[in-house]
Inverse folding.
């Protein structure tokens, strides 16, 4: 188990994966986002909810068409950005 944890931790440190708390997943799941919706994410860092919204918009598309909606991601806390 320690070896598995170390592998996951290395992936996290390198930026290959990130963890998302369940509480961050709930709003997107409850909103039932469609490809034509306009979504404003006001607390977007580190981007897990934003990615989830984008995925919801894409997965709702018909026949592989691009979504017609808009997703704006904003983060007021500059210190939370990871560069």
């Amino acid at each position: 188990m320690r070896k598995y944890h170390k592998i996951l931790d290395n992936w996290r440190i390198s930026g290959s994966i990130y963890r998302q708390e369940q509480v961050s997943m709930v709003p997107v799941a409850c909103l039932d986002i469609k490809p034509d919706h306009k979504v404003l994410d006001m607390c977007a860092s580190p981007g897990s909810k934003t990615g989830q919204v984008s995925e919801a918009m894409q997965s709702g598309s018909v026949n592989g068409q691009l979504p017609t909606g808009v997703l704006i991601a904003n983060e007021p806390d500059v210190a939370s950005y990871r560069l």
